Amino acid sequence: MADPKDIGKAFKEKLKGFDQSPSNLSWEDIEPKLPKKEDDKLSYWAKVVGVLIFLLLLMLFAADTYNSNIITENSTNTTIKIPATLENCDEIDPKNSKLQLPSNEIITTVLVSPKSKSDINDIYNSTTNNNWSILDSKTNNGIGLSSNKNVSNSSFIITRKMPLSTHRTSKQAPRVKNVMNKGVEEIKNTQNSTNSNAKTNPTNKKTSISSTSITNQIRNKSDKILNNSRNRASKNEKFKENKDDSLTTLIASKKNTSINNRKNKDTLVYMTPIKKKPFQKFSIGVHVTPTYTIAPNGSLISNHLAKNTNRGRISLSYGVLFKTYYTEKIALRVGYNRLKLSNKINNVPTDQLPIILNDLGIILPANNTIENSEKIDLIQKTIYNEVLFGLQYQILDNQISTALIGELGFLFLDENNIKIHTTSNNFKLGSNTNILKTNFSINIGANLRYKLSKKIFFNVEPLLKYQLKNASQNSESYRPLYFTIQTGVSYEF
Amino acid sequence: MDTRKLIKKCQKNNRKAQSELFHLYRDTLFALSLKYCKNYNEAEDNLQDSFITIFKKINQYNFKGSFEGWMKRITINKAIDKYKKTPFTDININKENIADTEIDSETLNLSLDELLKYIQELPDRYRLVFNLYELDEYSHKEIAKMLHISEGTSKSNLHRAKVILKTKITSNNNCLKKIAISNG
Description:
The structure holds two protein chains of two kinds. Chain A is of the alpha+beta class. Chain A has helices at residues 7-15, 27-30, 37-74, 117-129, 169-172, 174-177, 214-220, 222-235, 237-241, 247-265, 353-360; strands spanning 4-6, 79-82, 105-112, 133-136, 156-163, 190-191, 269-271, 281-294, 310-312, 314-325, 330-348, 376-396, 400-422, 426-430, 438-451, 456-467, 481-492.
C-alpha cells in the first residue's frame, strides 16, 4: 500500500497543469459583448472640439470687447463734420472753429483781437513765418499786412493747416499767443473723414481758408481783399450800426446767419461720439469652498450599489480666481480649485462586499475583519484639480454687488479613496480604479460681492456644478452634481 | 507577440489583440472555471463573463504582478460571485470520519475528468473553500474575507469538503472492487 497523502494535496498534484478547451464557447460569442470603444473615442473628441470652440469664441468675444474700447478712446474729443457742399465753407463759425477740412489734414484756428498796429505787424510776421494764414473774422477772407491799420480794432482768425500725423495743437499755438491781447479763445480740431475733394479744388475760393499758398496771395492782394471785406461788412446794416460792438455780438450774429443758412441749404452733420473711458480692471482672489455633493442615482463605486441609499457629504475645497473686466459688466474668469467631493453609501449588505471589492480590484486589508452581522457604509472621496474658464455678467454694482456666473470646468482626478465604516471598525480600503481621470463640468451660479475697501472685496459665490461625463467606468450612469459656496476675498487693480 | 505588447494593444481596444489574448488564455481559465463551477455549461458561462470583465478592466492592469494571476483572480471572483448568493446549509458528517482526510495514491488513481467530477459534486461553499485553499493556495484569512465568512468557518468547510471527497472516492473504489471480485 502506498503512503497515505492528504486528499487536498493529492488533488493538487493530479490537477497540476490541467487545461481544457471549451467546446461551445468561441471568440465570436464574446466579441459582440465587448464595449465599442471607437464610438466613445469619437464622442470624446467631439466633446473636446466643442469645448475648444467654446473657448475660442470666448476669447474672440473678449478681444472684440477690448478693441471696441480702444476705438472709443481714440475718437474722444474729436468733432467730425461732414459738409454737403464746398459752398458751406463760408458758414463756418470761427468761434467754434468748425472748419471744413481736407482728409488727413487738420486746421488749427485761433481767434485774435489785436489792439494796435504793432500787434498786427507781430501777428503777421509770426503767422507767415510759421505757415499760419490770417483771415478776417467777419468774412473769413484773407488779410494783408498793408491794410492792417484798417482792422486794428477788429479781430481775425489765424489758421494753420497741417498733416494729421504732425498736428500738435497745444505746442504750436503759444508762439502766436504771446503777441495777442486776447489770446487764444478756442482751439479745436476738426476732421473731415468723407469729403476729400475739398482739399484739392484750387478754383474754389473757400479752400483758401486752409491753403498754405494763400499766404502769398494775401501778401500781394491784401488791399483788395481788405476792401472787399469792408464792403461786405458795410452791406450789413446791423454790423454798421454796431461797429463798436464787442466781438461777442459779432460772432453771435455770424452764428445765427450760419445756422439759418444751414437750415436752408446745408446738410451738415455733426457727430460727437459719447466719451467713454477705456475699461480694464483685474481682480485676483482666494477662496475656500464648502462643497456638498448632491448624490444622484447610481453609484460611483460599483453597479451593485446602484440601488443603495447614496448620501452626499460636505467637504472643504479651496482655490484661486483671476478676473479680467473687459467692460463694466462683463468679466472673464480663470481659476483653479482643489475640489474635494465625498459621498456615503449606506447599508451595504455584507455578502455584496466581496463582489464590490472584486469590481474595484481591491483586496480587503489582512488586519481588518468584518463580522457578518455588521452594517457597512462605504465612503467614497475624490479630489480633483479643477481648471475653470468662464464669464461673469454684472447685474448690480453698489456697496453690495451681484453678478451671474457661467463657467466650464476641466477636472483632473488627483486622489480618490474608499473608506469602510462599520459599527465597530473604520478603515481605508483603497483606491477606486473605475473613476475617470478627466472630466468636464458646467458651472452656473451667482456672485455676491461686498465692498470692504476701495480695492478689497468679500465674495460669496453659490455655484451649481454638474459633470458632463460619467464619472465612473461602470456601465451605470453616474454624473455627480454638487453645490459649492465659494467664499473669499479679492483684490482689484 | 510579446505579452506586454499584447496587453497594451488590448488596452487600446484592439480587437485582433483581444482575440489573440482570448485564445492564449482560454484553456487555462476554462480549466479553472471547471474546478469552481458545478458543471461544464456553468464553467463556459463563467469563462465568458470573466473574459468580458477582463477586457473591460484591462486598463486597470498596471503591469505589476502576474497578468495570468490577475486574470485568474477575476475568473475565480466571477465564480465566487455566482455561488455566494445561493443559500447554504452545512451538512452533517459522521464523526468517525472527521479526523481522517488522508488517502493513499492508489485510491486516487483516477482520471482528470473523474477528479473534476468529484470536486464539482461538492456543495458550493465546500467546493469554493477546497479550491481556494488546496488548489489555488489562498489562506483561510483571505478565504474568509472573500466569502465573507469567519476563518473558523473556512477551516471547517475545508475539512468537510475533504471528508466528503474521501468518502465518495473510497466508497466508489470499494464498489468497484466488489464488482471486480464478483466478476471473478
